[in-house]
């Protein structure tokens, strides 16, 4: 009897503890970086890895899927990924304009204003029967948008066909695309909505995807009152497949807060100052949980508590070593001096403008400055809704007033379809050392149908920002990556270092807007006119003339 | 010859200066008539392009369904019974108990009767404890026990049900298992469970026979922070907490617990293990007198089941770290899933066996008395499954008929409601599925299949968004827009026509007067 009891207790012991956790890992990290202009950039990253999982093959969509059992992985997201057989998915919701000239590169490179969604999905079974129509890429892309719109309470559903594009070079998969049989090709879909406002209603569902919600661990610092008061903020969802690891979900939140606004001319910050909260307990299921702080290199400072380790001027605080409540504080000895010249940290500076006051035509001008001493080659991508169309013949490229058409190579342009499809312009651009390349292209503006205007038609339309993607220096020419010859049994595992993308701010275009009481005026006016003409003609045709004898 | 033209003796026509030569009554009347002809000819076209598409619905066929009643023929064969009079008296007893309205045609026969094997049940006469398996019932059959046997058969064939508790029929259910820790950061929480093992051990034996009725999608998740929307009351002994019956009604905190699914419209049955936070243990369910009840589980009708799991207190000397989170121990998992299995069965409407019957395991003939709370972990008997199939079928058939009738009534009442090709098609398909239901000697699973098709199609037609298309765009609006045109154009037309008719009659009376 005693041995029996002992065996029963054995069942409770750590061996099975490890078994349940071997399938999923969750880790969290907060990176805090003081910026040269006195602001503080912070980036939260929550990573959940589902070990050994593979994306669903859309050829099997008509077959019953296996049951989904998750411990740390968000079920609501898992359902969407399996139901629509999404291989890789990225969603960013950002508010404001990332100032590359003052703040340098963001930790998370995708900082496009508003909502953007891009995904890789394989083609479903190709037959045209009605049951399989829902398995096609475009049908699943539509359903995916609707599902994510529901999940994140954002207007992602309005990223319809008119905003969907498939640029091929500026975006590459972060993970790998599974090597399914040759008939299954992966398709890329991208859509962005710059006018999306990001607010608390998007953060609440975001927090619900985390295993510890916002109740413990680093996520407790995500205080909507402070985050949405920041100079810039944005959240992201990145799902990718790592062949030897599994499906990874990365939830990120970035913000730029301004300690100088708190009063005093001091850029000293603490967690309490930035987020109005402190970490009061660790997330019990996080495999690793740490805060990384970039420490000043030139000035005198004090940091409290002491970091667990310091590598390359970055102090790491492991939450397992710290006592709670944890409030990090960084102090400078000297008060902050505003720099007269913003210190450019980004290697490129991009400006983009829409010129011309006419309602039916104008010009798009982009100037890219390369301050570096080496030439740089980039992919330049414009995705424009069909209300703006480009005149490619007017494309002019100049450096310091001298025309240099040779800098632009390999242009691919997908013309817009009015009322149907967005335009995509993608090209390789070589930027000579220490120069400013100016690109000038004439644009026309379409007339919109009466019902196509947004509710606030007088405000105009937001054009998504252009994307300038710096190609990784190591792989000098892009053609090797897109080479179709090495698509063997296993599609080549794309390099981890992604092309660094720079997003320009959204532009506002003002198409001709009608007077919206017009239809009723037109009806009434036309009716009156027709009645008048009809009356005159009818009277003229049927009038009875009578001769009267005038009395002499 | 027009009256104002006179003929000169030399053949040329003479003009009367008191009459105008370019004016002809005939042409004027022709012009007015052609206007009116045009309008009258255009009316059908106008009618056609402005009317709403309203295809005719098979109203008569829908109403004819009222005359149909589902009949389920049920045969009971008696085994090992020598006395032939027993079958007639059992038949009489059963007819008294099972009313015709319940749709059962019970026939009691002797064994070896050459009858069709559809829905036949076997009652084997044997002494001892009554036991059931598959479609067999072992029961003493003597004149003295006949009335007890008839009671038992009635309970087996027409089991009593709680209609409020049972989830609405759907061809597919999503079973969502959720392990909720109220506050894992406080320590002592449950960090995981062997869910796939528990499902294959405890639920798969049930889900396999039930797959005749429903398909199931199973999913599970673990949450580490699931706060309650209220504070449980502290009990008098100071060390435990209680949930009053009122608390149970607001127990599910759907705002904080992310339970909803965003990808499908299938109804979800939730099964929740709630682990109270370390500071609120043990959490007990109180009865209406405020006393802790022995049960730790409750059922939310048509929604799911909830079990409160209080991890054993950490006095065990083997556990070093009292605050460590541990996975759910297998023994607790076993107890939880037995409860879930019972809850699942009652949510799906599977009838319980009468309490004084034991299940005979199908493999061996030995019968064993199983405690009633564990009996559901055994496979279901054919008696239970058939009773459920019959109930679901008649519910679906009634639901489909009611829905069809509502559609017909609604379309009849609201004249602006469009009826398109798809709505009509769904109604017709639903009707034909409903009519197929009444073909005699159909096996039970396919009757259920037809009834479920009929119900699904009827509801799809009822909720078709196209039926609302023009509902809120009344004809008055159209007239308001058209009246500036129509009024100003038709008034001169009408006036001219009337004037012309008056003039013509006057002319005629004058002409008659002249003659």
Automatic annotation (TrEMBL), chain A:
The chain crosses the membrane at residues 520-541. One of its GO terms (cellular component) is GPI-anchor transamidase complex. It comes from the Eukaryota. Keywords: Membrane, Signal, Transmembrane, Transmembrane helix. The keyword Transmembrane helix applies. Residues 1-18 form the signal peptide. InterPro entries: PIG-T (IPR007245). One of its GO terms (biological process) is attachment of GPI anchor to protein. Pfam families: Gpi16. This is GPI transamidase component GPI16. It comes from Favolaschia claudopus.
TrEMBL record, chain B:
It is found in: Endoplasmic reticulum membrane. PANTHER family: GPI TRANSAMIDASE COMPONENT PIG-S. Pathway: Glycolipid biosynthesis; glycosylphosphatidylinositol-anchor biosynthesis. GO terms for biological process: attachment of GPI anchor to protein; GPI anchor biosynthetic process. Belongs to the PIGS family. It comes from Favolaschia claudopus. It holds the Pfam family PIG-S. Keywords: Endoplasmic reticulum, Glycoprotein, GPI-anchor biosynthesis, Membrane, Transmembrane, Transmembrane helix. GO terms for cellular component: GPI-anchor transamidase complex. The chain crosses the membrane at residues 26-47. It is a multi-pass membrane protein. This is GPI transamidase component PIG-S.
């Amino acid at each position: 009897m005693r041995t029996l009891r002992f065996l029963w207790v054995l069942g409770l012991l750590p061996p099975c503890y490890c078994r349940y956790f071997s399938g999923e890992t969750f880790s969290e990290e907060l990176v805090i970086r003081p910026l040269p202009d006195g602001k503080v950039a912070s980036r939260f990253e929550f990573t959940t890895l589902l070990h050994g999982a593979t994306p669903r093959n859309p050829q099997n969509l008509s077959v019953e899927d296996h049951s989904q059992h998750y411990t740390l992985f968000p079920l609501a997201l898992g359902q969407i990924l399996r139901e629509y057989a999404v291989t890789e998915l990225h969603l960013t919701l950002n508010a404001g304009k990332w100032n590359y000239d003052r703040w340098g590169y963001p930790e998370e490179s995708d900082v496009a204003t508003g909502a953007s969604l891009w995904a890789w999905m394989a083609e479903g079974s190709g037959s045209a029967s009605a049951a399989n129509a829902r398995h096609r890429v475009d049908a699943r892309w539509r359903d995916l948008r609707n599902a994510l719109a529901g999940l994140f309470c954002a207007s992602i559903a309005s990223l319809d066909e008119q905003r969907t594009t498939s640029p091929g070079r500026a975006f590459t998969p972060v993970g790998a695309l599974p090597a399914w049989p040759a008939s299954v090709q992966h398709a890329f879909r991208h859509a962005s909505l710059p006018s999306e406002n990001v607010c608390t209603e998007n953060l609440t569902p975001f927090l619900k995807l985390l295993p510890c919600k916002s109740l413990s661990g680093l996520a407790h610092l995500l205080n909507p009152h402070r985050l949405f008061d920041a100079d810039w903020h944005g959240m992201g969802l990145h799902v990718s497949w790592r062949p030897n690891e599994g499906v990874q979900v990365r939830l990120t939140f970035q913000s730029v807060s301004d300690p100088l606004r708190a009063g005093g001319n001091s850029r000293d910050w603490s967690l309490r100052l930035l987020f109005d909260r402190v970490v009061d307990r660790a997330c019990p299921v996080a495999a690793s949980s740490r805060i990384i702080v970039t420490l000043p290199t030139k000035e005198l400072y004090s940091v409290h508590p002491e970091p667990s380790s310091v590598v390359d001027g970055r102090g790491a605080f492991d939450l397992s070593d710290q006592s709670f409540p944890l409030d990090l504080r960084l102090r400078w000895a000297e008060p902050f001096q505003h720099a007269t010249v913003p210190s450019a940290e980004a290697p490129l500076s991009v400006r983009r403008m829409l010129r011309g006051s006419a309602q039916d035509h104008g010009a798009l001008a982009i100037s890219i400055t390369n301050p570096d001493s080496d030439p740089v080659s980039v992919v330049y991508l414009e995705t424009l809704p069909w209300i703006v169309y480009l005149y490619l013949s007017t494309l002019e490229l100049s450096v310091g007033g001298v025309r240099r058409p040779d800098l632009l190579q390999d242009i691919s342009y997908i013309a817009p379809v009015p009322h149907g499809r967005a335009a995509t312009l993608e090209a390789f651009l070589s930027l000579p050392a220490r120069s400013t390349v100016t690109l000038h292209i004439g644009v026309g503006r379409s007339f919109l149908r009466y019902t196509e205007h947004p509710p606030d038609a007088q405000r105009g339309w937001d054009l998504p920002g252009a994307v300038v993607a710096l190609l990784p220096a190591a792989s000098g020419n892009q053609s090797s990556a897109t080479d179709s010859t090495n698509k063997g049994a296993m599609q080549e595992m794309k390099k981890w270092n992604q092309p660094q993308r720079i997003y320009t701010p959204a532009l506002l275009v003002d198409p001709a807007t009608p007077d919206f009481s017009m239809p009723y005026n037109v009806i009434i006016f036309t009716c009156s006119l027709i009645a008048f003409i009809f009356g005159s003609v009818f009277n003229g045709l049927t009038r009875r003339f009578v001769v009267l004898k005038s009395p002499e | 010859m027009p009256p104002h033209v006179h003929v000169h003796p030399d053949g040329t026509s003479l003009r009367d200066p008191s009459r105008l030569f370019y004016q002809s009554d005939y042409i004027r009347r022709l012009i007015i008539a052609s206007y009116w002809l045009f309008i009258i000819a255009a009316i059908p076209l106008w009618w056609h392009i402005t009317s709403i598409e309203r295809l005719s619905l098979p109203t008569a066929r829908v109403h004819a369904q009222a005359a149909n009643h589902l009949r389920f023929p049920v045969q009971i064969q008696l085994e090992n019974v020598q006395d032939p009079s027993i079958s007639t008296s059992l038949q009489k007893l059963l007819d008294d108990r099972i009313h015709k309205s319940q749709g059962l045609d019970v026939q009691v026969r002797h064994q070896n009767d050459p009858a069709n094997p559809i829905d036949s049940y076997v009652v084997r006469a044997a002494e001892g404890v009554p036991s059931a398996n598959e479609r067999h019932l072992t029961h003493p059959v003597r004149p003295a026990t006949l009335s007890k046997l008839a009671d038992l058969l009635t309970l087996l064939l027409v089991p009593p049900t709680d209609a409020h508790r049972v989830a609405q029929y759907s061809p597919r259910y999503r079973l969502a298992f959720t392990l909720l820790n109220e506050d894992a950061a406080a320590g002592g929480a449950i960090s995981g469970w062997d869910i796939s093992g528990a499902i294959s051990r405890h639920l798969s034996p049930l889900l396999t026979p039930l797959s005749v009725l429903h398909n199931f999608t199973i999913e599970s998740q673990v949450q580490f922070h699931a706060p309650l929307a209220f504070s449980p009351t502290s009990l008098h002994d100071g060390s435990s907490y209680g949930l009053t019956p009122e608390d149970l009604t607001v127990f599910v905190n759907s705002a904080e617990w992310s339970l909803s699914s965003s990808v499908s419209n299938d109804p979800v049955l939730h099964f929740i293990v709630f682990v109270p936070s370390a500071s609120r243990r043990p959490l007990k369910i109180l009865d209406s007198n405020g006393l802790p009840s022995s049960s730790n589980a409750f059922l939310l009708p048509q929604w799911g089941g909830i079990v409160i799991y209080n991890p054993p207190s950490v006095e065990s000397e083997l556990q070093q770290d009292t605050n460590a989170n541990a996975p759910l121990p297998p023994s607790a998992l076993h107890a939880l899933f037995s409860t879930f299995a019972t809850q699942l069965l009652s949510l799906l409407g599977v009838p319980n066996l009468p309490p004084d019957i034991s299940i005979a395991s199908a493999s061996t003939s030995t019968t064993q008395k199983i405690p009633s709370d564990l009996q559901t972990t055994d496979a279901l008997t054919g008696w239970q499954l058939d009773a459920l199939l019959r109930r679901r079928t008649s519910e679906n058939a009634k639901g489909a008929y009611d829905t069809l009738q509502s559609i017909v009534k609604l379309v009849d009442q609201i004249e602006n409601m469009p009826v398109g090709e798809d709505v009509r098609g769904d109604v017709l398909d639903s009707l034909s599925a409903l009519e197929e239901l009444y073909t005699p000697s159909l096996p039970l699973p396919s009757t259920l299949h037809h009834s479920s098709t009929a119900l699904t199609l009827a509801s799809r037609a009822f909720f078709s968004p196209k039926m609302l298309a023009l509902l809120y765009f009344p004809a008055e609006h159209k007239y308001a827009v058209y009246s500036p045109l129509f009024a100003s154009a038709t008034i001169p037309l009408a006036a001219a026509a009337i004037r012309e008719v008056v003039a013509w009659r006057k002319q005629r009376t004058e002409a008659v007067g002249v003659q």
